[in-house]
Every structure is written in structure tokens, then in C-alpha cells.
Design brief:
Blueprint: E1 3-17, E2 20-27, E3 36-39, E4 43-50, E5 58-61, E6 87-93, E7 99-105, E8 115-121, E9 135-144, H1 149-159, E10 168-171, E11 188-191, E12 196-203, E13 209-214, E14 219-224, E15 227-234, E16 236-239, E17 244-250, E18 257-265, E19 277-284, H2 309-316, E20 333-344, E21 362-367, E22 370-372, H3 380-386, E23 418-420, E24 423-426, E25 431-438, E26 447-451, E27 456-463, E28 482-483, E29 485-488, E30 492-499, E31 504-510, H4 513-517, E32 521-526
Parallel strand pairs: 1-4, 3-8, 9-12, 11-19, 20-25, 22-23, 24-32
Antiparallel strand pairs: 1-2, 4-6, 5-7, 7-8, 9-10, 12-17, 13-16, 13-18, 14-15, 14-17, 18-19, 20-21, 25-30, 26-29, 26-31, 27-28, 27-30, 31-32
This protein binds CU-O-CU linkage.
CU-O-CU linkage (C2O) binds near residues 61, 74, 450 and 452.
Protein name: Laccase
Enzyme class: oxidoreductase
Family: Belongs to the multicopper oxidase family.
Length: about 550
């Protein structure tokens, strides 16, 4: 195994998109940021130097970080931010993961431009469980704002209203030829007739789930979230922010140019969303247009309608592990967590300009009625490790405080969230089941739920209220998929299981950044086991404190 050293300099860089240039925060001046390639078993050492005027942290999305929670990265969860002018070195080893992950800033909305692919090849000398493709191409889907995304979220926090939706989606940083001033920079992916390409598709968007397709080509799904899956073919993918999907695509059509495209899967009824389409071009090198390709119009794709929940759900339900897996069956901790948007009455004395949500309220989102608040003086991990009192409590409720028809039309008086920094404590090695239950309190929506530090089995999902008497018959305990981000279906439920074998403090949150901003998160505190190998390592010397 190798050790890879990288320097990430966080800096403001002029980036031109949609006819306008503005200073964006980037890594090493690149947008999207550098692609890191490693083999399973390798160690990454990334020295992050902050030359921007914002606080920053970097999260290695999906990396298990066994015993190295100090390198996970979410601001105020595992570390205090890297202040302007300061630096921090993340150090971690990839253990048993293969496929596609990614890295992104985990501070405010910086990840709009601070992100990149993390590609994990099999161990040296080992092979993929499918024929080695001729090429491999990362396909990063993103969202672009015509203004500074940090200003967009700051304004939303101040006013209590919903933030502006993005102005474009992007593929590898480029909106593509359907947007103004973007045609000449459209991303082009070349292929030779007959060859196979492994597309590593990542939804790095901030707030939008996306459908993705390639005109006239079948996609064979072989992996997701750095876990192999039992291969299946499809013409369209749906990825929530945070999710990755590896697909094989064969250049088996008439040599020509074909669009790749992505657009919103917008499951929330009536809520505004960015209704534009991003494109890239798959170009056969042997295309008869070879001398004058720019003039050949690519073949058009067909994407599902923005509200096509049937297609989105049919897709997520196709995932299986390639073979029989060991799902924990004796459950030590059984949690039932409601996940939902909501509204908060304006605090007394608040000014109306701070309460511009629907009917003079503010948006708030919660899990089991708790709207998560980040600490500001310590990270939760440091507070836990050093036993500093008063930073968090461990009374996150295992079940909702009130029972009601979660997916019905409920009055919001039933559901005023409380604010708090509440953790749920798990003993080392505990087997955990979490039923995630979507709610229809303000508006029902599909939520991509991401757990740090773990992969979990998704053993079942469905619509409506989870019924513990009948729905357990739907559990797949044989070959469920192993992932780090689950699509909780709109007005529905998802059941996940994992073993708490990684000590530390691990946030579980909706990966729509606007929902984290509103508090859609909780965190697990996983205690050390008995031996040193079951315990958190000591913090690095340059660990940022507040
Ligand atoms: Cu991809 Cu908490 O993040």
C-alpha cells in the first residue's frame, strides 16, 4: 500500500460561467477540484491550507475513517474550522472500500465550488468484479449560482425564508450548451466505437436530486457509494446529493455525438426548483463528423419529468449487494426517526424581516422534533474526547415524542421543533436499526440521508407510515445494498442497519444543504471499545480547536 501526499490550497479564484465572472472559492484554483486516485488500502495525507476569507473544513464523503474521526471534517462536529491563514493535515487510510467517493467542503455552503472526486481502485494486483473497461471518466454533477452561494445561505438564515435556487446544473463544472455563454465549454467525453467506459457519476449538487441519462445508450450499474452492486441495466439514474453511481457504458451505437444530460428530480410539491438541464457530449472518435464535429447536433436524450417519483423509486429499489451479506439480525438499538421540514413560529420579539417564511414563520427542519444546532466553541468530538461538559447532551429521542399520521395532512401545531445539540449514545459494537420516517408536515420531500463514518445496509423502503407489524416482512436480510447515503422516499420510509464499530461522533443528516441549514441532522456518539484497536486514535498535533 502507498501513501499519497497532496496540498489543497483553498483560495478565491475568478471563475466565469453563464456570461459572468465572479470570485469562487476553489482548491488549487481548480473548479471542480482535483481528482484523487488511490488503491484500496492506501493512505491519504492532505494538507489543507486556507488562503480564503472564510472558515473551511474538508470532508471525505463516504470514507469510513476507522478510528480516525479527527479527519472526517464536518465543521463543529469532528473539528473546529480551519481559520483563514491556518492549515490542517487530514490523514486516513482506505480500508476495504472500492469504487467512487468524493470530497467536499463541510462548512456553510462552500461545497458549491469546493469538491472533487475520490477514486478508489482495487488493491494493487486485484481486479474489478467486471471486465476492465478501456476508459474511466468521472462525471461530477453540480449546481451553480450566479452569485456567491455563501451570500445566498446567509440571506436565507437571516430572513427565515427559502434560499434562491441555483441558476444552472453542471457536468464536470460546465453547464453545457443549453445555457447562455456556455456552449463552447461544454464537457466532451470521447470514446472509440466498441469500447467500454466506466462513468463514475457523483451528485455533488447542493440541494437537488438529479436524473442522469445518456441518449440511446444503456447504462449498466456496477457500484454505488464505493460498494459493488449486483449489475443491472437502466436508461436513467437518479442520485441524491452525496450519492455516487458507477456505470459501464458501451460505445455500441452509430458513431456520432450523443448528449449526456441531468435535470432535477423535484419531489416537493409546489416548492420552487431549478428547472434547467445540463448537458455534456459523448463523442465517438470515429464519428463521421470527425472533421467538423462542432456542427453535428448531438442526439437528444429523454429524461423523466421532474416529478417522476415512480421512476426515481423504481431505480433506487433495484440495488442489491452482489452476493449474500451479513446483515445484523439481533438488534441492540432500534430507533425510529422522523425526518421532515417544518416551520417555526417566530421567536417573540423577532423582527418581521427575520421571519419571511410562509405566514410570518421561519423554516426549520428536524429529526424526531429536534432541530440540530451546531456548537460554536468546541467540536463535539473534542468535547467528547476531553470530557468537556455543556457542549452537547445525549438525550436524542429514540422514538418521536408524539405519534401521529406522519405522512398525512397534519396541523403544524402538532409539530413545533425544539432546538438542541442532542446526540444518541451507542456502545461499541452495538447493532443498530434506524427506521427513517419521512413526514408531510410542511411539504413532503425525498431526502438523501447520509451517515458519516459508516456504510449501512438499506433493508427496505416504502411509502406511507412504516408499519412495524407488516412492513418487517419486506426486509431484505440476504443481499441488501451497502451505502452511505439513502434516498428516503417522499412521504415514505427507509430502514437501515449497521454495526457501531467505529468510535467517534458521527453526524447523520439530509444531504440537501438547505435542509442542514434548517437543522435536519442528529449525531451518534459511538463509545470506545475495550481494546486500543476498538478505540479512537489520539488527535493529530495540528488539530484545529476553536
Ligand atoms: Cu457529504 Cu456531511 O456530507
Amino acid at each position: 500500500a502507498k501513501t499519497h501526499y497532496h496540498d489543497f490550497v483553498i483560495q478565491a479564484t475568478p471563475v466565469k460561467r453563464l456570461c459572468k465572472t465572479h470570485n469562487s472559492i476553489t482548491v488549487n484554483g481548480q473548479f471542480p477540484g482535483p481528482t484523487l486516485e488511490v488503491n484500496n488500502g492506501d493512505t491519504l495525507v492532505v494538507n489543507v491550507v486556507n488562503r480564503a476569507r472564510y472558515n473551511v473544513t474538508i470532508h471525505w464523503h463516504g470514507v469510513r475513517q476507522m478510528r480516525t474521526a479527527w479527519s472526517d471534517g464536518p465543521e463543529f462536529i469532528t473539528q473546529c474550522p480551519i481559520r483563514p491563514g491556518k492549515s490542517y493535515t487530514y490523514r486516513f487510510t482506505i480500508q476495504g472500500q472500492e469504487g467512487t467517493l468524493w470530497w467536499h467542503a463541510h462548512s456553510s455552503w462552500l461545497r458549491a465550488t469546493v469538491y472533487g472526486a475520490l477514486i478508489i481502485h482495487p488493491k494493487q494486483g486485484e481486479n474489478y468484479p467486471f471486465p476492465k473497461p478501456k476508459r474511466e471518466t468521472p462525471v461530477l454533477l453540480g449546481e451553480w449560482w450566479d452569485t456567491n452561494p455563501i451570500d445566498v445561505v446567509r440571506r436565507a438564515t437571516r430572513t427565515g425564508a427559502a434560499p434562491n435556487v441555483s441558476d444552472a446544473y453542471t457536468i464536470n463544472g460546465q453547464p453545457g450548451d443549453l445555457y447562455k455563454c456556455s456552449k463552447q465549454d461544454t464537457t466532451i467525453v470521447h470514446m472509440d466505437s466498441g469500447e467500454t467506459n466506466l462513468l463514475r457519476v457523483i451528485n455533488a449538487g447542493l440541494n437537488q436530486q438529479l436524473f442522469f441519462t445518456v441518449a440511446n445508450h444503456k447504462l449498466t450499474v456496477v457500484g454505488a457509494d464505493a460498494n459493488y452492486v449486483k449489475p443491472f441495466t437502466t436508461s436513467v439514474l437518479m442520485l441524491g446529493p452525496g450519492q455516487t453511481t458507477d456505470v459501464l457504458i458501451k460505445a455500441d451505437q452509430t458513431p456520432s455525438r450523443y448528449y449526456m444530460a441531468a435535470r432535477a428530480y423535484a419531489s416537493a410539491q409546489g416548492a420552487p426548483f431549478d428547472n434547467t438541464t445540463t448537458t455534456a457530449i459523448l463523442e465517438y472518435k470515429t464519428a463521421s463528423c470527425s472533421s467538423n464535429c462542432a456542427k453535428t447536433k448531438p442526439v437528444s436524450p429523454s429524461l423523466p419529468a421532474y416529478n417522476d417519483t415512480a421512476t426515481a423509486t423504481a431505480f433506487t429499489r433495484k440495488f442489491r449487494s452482489p452476493r449474500k451479506v451479513e446483515v445484523p439480525t439481533e438488534i441492540d438499538e432500534n430507533l425510529f426517526i422522523t425526518v421532515g421540514l417544518g416551520l417555526e413560529n417566530c421567536p417573540r420579539g423577532a423582527r418581521s424581516r427575520n421571519c419571511q417564511g410562509p405566514n410570518g414563520t421561519r423554516f426549520a427542519a428536524s429529526m424526531n422534533n429536534v432541530s440540530f444546532v451546531l456548537p460554536s466553541n468546541f467540536s463535539l468530538l473534542q468535547a467528547h474526547h476531553q470530557g468537556i461538559p455543556g457542549v452537547f447532551s445525549t438525550d436524542f429521542p429514540a422514538v418521536p415524542p408524539v405519534k401521529f399520521n406522519y405522512t398525512g395532512n397534519v396541523s403544524r401545531s402538532l409539530w413545533q421543533p425544539i432546538r438542541g445539540t442532542k446526540l444518541y449514545k451507542l456502545k461499541y459494537g452495538a447493532t443498530v436499526q434506524v427506521v427513517l420516517q419521512g413526514t408531510g408536515i410542511f411539504t413532503a420531500e425525498n431526502h438523501p440521508i447520509h451517515l458519516h463514518g459508516y456504510d449501512f445496509y438499506i433493508i427496505a423502503e416504502g411509502f406511507g407510515n412504516f408499519n412495524p407489524k407488516t412492513d418487517t416482512s419486506k426486509f431484505n436480510l440476504v443481499n441488501p445494498p451497502l451505502r452511505n447515503t439513502a434516498s428516503l422516499p417522499v412521504n415514505g420510509w427507509t430502514v437501515i442497519r449497521f454495526v457501531a464499530d467505529n468510535p467517534g461522533v458521527w453526524i447523520m443528516h439530509c444531504h440537501l444543504d438547505v435542509h442542514i441549514t434548517w437543522g435536519l441532522a442528529m449525531a451518534f456518539l459511538v463509545e470506545n471499545g475495550v481494546s486500543e484497536l476498538e478505540s479512537l486514535e489520539s488527535p493529530p498535533v495540528d488539530f484545529p480547536v476553536c
